Each structure stands twice: as C-alpha cells, then as structure tokens.
Amino acid sequence: MAEAGVELLADFRRLAVMGFAEVIGQIPFFLRLLRQLRSELDARRPDLVIPIDYPGFNMRLSRDAKLAGVPVLYYIAPQVWAWHRSRMRRLAELADRLAVILPFEERLFRDAGARAEFVGHPLLDGPFNAGGGEELAAELGLDPARPVVALFPGSRAQEVARHGELFLEVAARIQRAVPSVQPVLAVSDAVPAEAYASVPYPRTRRSRELLVLARAALVKSGTTTLEAALSGTPMVIAYRTHPLTYWLARRLVRVDHIGLVNLVAGSRVAPEYIQSEATPDALADALLPLLEPGHPEREAALEALALVRASLHPRSANGASSTADRVAGIAAELLGEGG
Questions:
Q1: Do 74 and 89 share a domain, yes or no?
Q2: CA separation (Å) from 110 to 66, 117, 255?
C-alpha cells in the first residue's frame, strides 16, 4: 500500500499479533488508533471504508463508519463462523457489502443476512507455477536432483519463536532418514533477521517459488496452507500458541480443522498437529511419505489439492480477470450508489 502511494496512519507491524493472550499487551495501542481513526472519519468524511479482516478492531471501525453514514465494503471477512457465529449477523448489519475469499463463506454470511459475494482468493492473482523453481535452486546452491522440503514457521515474530526450533528439529530427523533431502526455510521481512541466526539451512523470502520447488512442506496453520495447495505441494500442518490462547480456543472455536486448506476441502487433506501433538517425531513421520514419489499418501494429497485449487475460483467472474478486479468492482458500485 505504501509503495502504491497510500497514506499510512500506523505502523502495520504493530498490528501483527495473534491470539487472545498475545493481544492484551497491545490494547492501549489499539484504543489510541481507534480514537485516531474516529477523528479521521469526522475530519475527512470518506466516501467509502474498506476494512480488511481483523474483526476485533475493524468491526468497531465499521460501526463508527455506519453511524457516520459512510458505506462499508468489508473485504476478507473475518472467520467469525469459526469462533463467534453471533458476530455473523452483526457483521451483516455493519457492512453494506461483504467480499469473501473462501467458497463456503458466501452461503454462511448470506444466511446471516449479509450481501456477501465470493470473489475468489487473492492468492489466485499470484504467479503460481510460473516456473519450476530452477532459478531459486541455483540461487540457493541446491542440487536439482535431490528433493527439497520447505519449512514455513510463520510470518510473525511470535510464530517463528514458537515454531522455529521445532521445525529445525523436524528437518534434522528427515535428513537422518533421507540424507538426500534439502531443507529450505522461508523467512519473512516482518521478522527480525536475528530470529533466523541459528538456522543451518538455506533461507529465502521467495516463498511461492520455494513451494513450487519443494516436494513437500511443513507449514504453520494459516494462509500458507492455501499457497501450498495452489502450488500442488503436499504438506503437514503444525501450530503452537500461548497456553492461555490455546485453552480459550479449545472452548470457543467450533470447527473440525485448523488448516485453511482442510476447511476449504471439508476434510483432512493435510495432517494437522496442534500444541503438544506437534512433536519432532510426529511431524517427521507424517512428512516422510509425502516426500516419496508414488507413495499412496502423496498421491492422495496431490489429488485432494487439485480439488481445493479448483474450488478457490468463483463460479462467475462477472467479466473481472482477478480477485482484485472483482473487489474493485464492488467498491465502484458502492461509490456510485453514494453519488
């Protein structure tokens, strides 16, 4: 957004926190930012507000916009269907239009009274499978004849802190079982470089090319699971969080899976390991069959991921060539309705 000329009112890195316990220390910052944005609403009188995900904050901002008479296009609907379904109806009241990115969300939100439209997943706008990853392999000094396992511990500092050592231990176990395997770690610009100082494997920020290059991946739960699906890369999903956050989530979250790829598929197409289940031995044992060409578990995963990829495309594109174009079209409609 900054590169495109958007005026930023806050450091977005301050917003990159997840979990119940983790958010507590940032509450004063969020309250100050909300007050600032309320002042901006009064002073600038915008023609449209586009909140993106982030429900705890953005639903409050949407309420303020609604009270000010400003239309709201909520893009990337928060996953309130997973943990707070009563908020679905509230979101329907606050948003003039709702652009959703997971295929099953359209019906859920429409049933709650929202003007919801499945616009496709924004990852579809990315260059997946544009090449075989040869350029990245050469850059990292990898042997193209040997299999690559991709490690995705997360894009936030707190995630790398919880998953980094675990993922490295898994990679070491896989190498002992299959010495030809080449682990590669995906790193994030949002994480300080010193967080990766002890990593003994090649590192890259070119995550999409890494997924294309990899034979299998170990990923933390989140959007990366869909990126792997779009790349056709079989994966194992792991997630660890603060014990208090996990305790609360066990009592609030009402879904059968934590991985987005499994939620979209409606079945366990990628193994999931949460908290104490996520051990080096369990994760390595789950990954090894996915690295073996022709193994039944690998073949089943590849077939399931192809179905997930197909489902992420909207049935009707209304002439728009990309997810971004479809969202922009809805924004234009709302601006037209507002005169």
A1: yes
A2: 19, 9, 19
